[in-house]
TrEMBL record, chains A, B:
Listed transmembrane segments: none
Keywords recorded for this protein, A-Z: DNA-binding, Transcription, Transcription regulation
Biased composition (Basic and acidic residues): 111-124
Record InterPro entries: ArsR-like_HTH, HTH_ArsR_DNA-bd_dom, HTH_MetalResp_TranReg, WH-like_DNA-bd_sf, WH_DNA-bd_sf
Source organism superkingdom: Bacteria
Keyword field contains Transport: no
Lineage: Bacteria, Bacillati, Actinomycetota, Actinomycetes, Kitasatosporales
Residue ranges occupied by any HTH arsR-type domain in the UniProt entry: 1-89
Alphabetized Pfam families for the sequence: HTH_20
This protein's name: Metalloregulator ArsR/SmtB family transcription factor
NCBIfam families, A to Z: HTH_metalloreg
UniProt-annotated stretches for the region Disordered: 103-124
Amino acid sequence: MSDASLWTALADPHRRVIVGLLLERPRPVGEIADACGLSQPSTSKHLKVLREAGLVRVRQDAQRRVYALDPAPIAELDAWLAPYRKLWNDSLDALGRRLDETAATAATRGESSDEDNRAPDSKD
Amino acid sequence: MSDASLWTALADPHRRVIVGLLLERPRPVGEIADACGLSQPSTSKHLKVLREAGLVRVRQDAQRRVYALDPAPIAELDAWLAPYRKLWNDSLDALGRRLDETAATAATRGESSDEDNRAPDSKD
DNA sequence: ACCATGTATGCCTTGACTGGCATATAACTG
DNA sequence: CAGTTATATGCCAGTCAAGGCATACATGGT
């Protein structure tokens, strides 16, 4: 039931930044604090929240504690919004169809400007 | 960047419930309040938050206000966690591969290695 | 116009969260 | 063992969000 804590953990902007940093690579606390412009104690507290949400794991390296991202809870998030993704894909579909019709009516208008907003999912 | 309001909006359990309800179908405020076990005023406030986060839209039907889900911001969420999804897919892949190997080798009792990165003294 | 229904807003209290500072704790170094 | 580095924790104050209640606002019906 890390559900609640998961959302709460990610609700904080600083913590999202931290998670972003850890996405690039594992980092020790000091580095994170520095990158976030936060004090070390605050950073430690945020990391504690993330840890309790299961979002990060710690590895001890001498006196340093290197935090790394744990992707599992993110999967949970993804699972949560799966139903909504369907809905939004439908919307895009409808939009696409409408555009398609328009394009058909307007004949060739050479428009491929749309960025790929499709679900990047490769699994189902 | 995902709107801060989006995360804040979804950080609240009641609001997630509301969003879930609206996923099924659009509903008037009273119905939502009833389903959530919240007072009508509280519900209205939550809906306001969701509205300002762009998550819901209102349609006026007589004195009723029928709220419906707007899937667009959810797409934003999805976009945010896209990079993480990659990571977690890799993890699953690696896990699958590891299990596969283990099954293949079968003889070695699990090479425990260091998959337990928990802090040894995590106390509260 | 009056009243009923449905919803939004304002006020207030309470509780949670955040950040900083000082300090305790743990681990390495000489 | 003392000293230094790296991190965690406790305490405090400021902020903010959530829920309840009363009430204002809007729409429809008679």
